[in-house]
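This is your field. Please look over both lines of this record.
***
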Amino acid sequence: MKTITILGAGWLGTALAKKLQSNYQIKVSTRTVDKQKALIQNDLNAFITDFNTDATENYDVLFHNVDVLIVSLTPQPISVFKKIEKVIQQYQIKQVLLFSSTGIYGDLEGNVYENTQLNTHLPRVALLKEIEDLFLHNSNFNTTVLRLGGLIGGDRHPVKSLARKDQITDGNEPVNIAYRDRIIKIIESLLSDDLPNDVFNYVEDDHRTKEVYYTEAAEKYQLKLPKFISNAVPKNRIVSAEKINAYIKKNRA
């Protein structure tokens, strides 16, 4: 049975760990004792590790004899990811799955793909790209980068925070969303074989405007939304998921 360590037992990492643990030996990391206790109560092997500090007491149990490392962390200073890179090499982990974000396509217009030229003058875009490249350009292991759209699932839905705003901008722009259950199914498909050293987008095919999509969601949650503001010249940015869909279809054939 393969051993997988998931760095970051947050909203996605925890759900992923629960789903994978029937077929893999799963270990997860968290930064607090309270979260560790909650994870253990959910029958997960949880250990405290914080790459923002130099604490290394759980490195052996988390990283020794690990087949796949899943990095499920929010964007942090590049120094954090450089520490992770060193640990991957130290423990000779050969396969890495790195969660990134379609936020990397910030300020672009029209259809965007994995090879679309990025606006790296924007700080957030530059950080995401630097994190991705750090792993992708290391020849000691393979990294699959999964650029995820706006995350939805369980009790998490962005319409809840939008309902608290005074107004909602970009009302006529298309949504690029990703549902947690489908993300997990894609990850299960990726893990069924060796991970490729490659980049994939994942969003739903639903690209209705924010106004149409969130108005429908508000009705479901019985929420009242503020006024939507439309852009005079919309960017109409649509993230393509063609590459990941084709890859999974080919692997299942």
In short: The chain has a mean pLDDT of 95. Residues 79 and 245 are 33 Å apart (CA to CA).
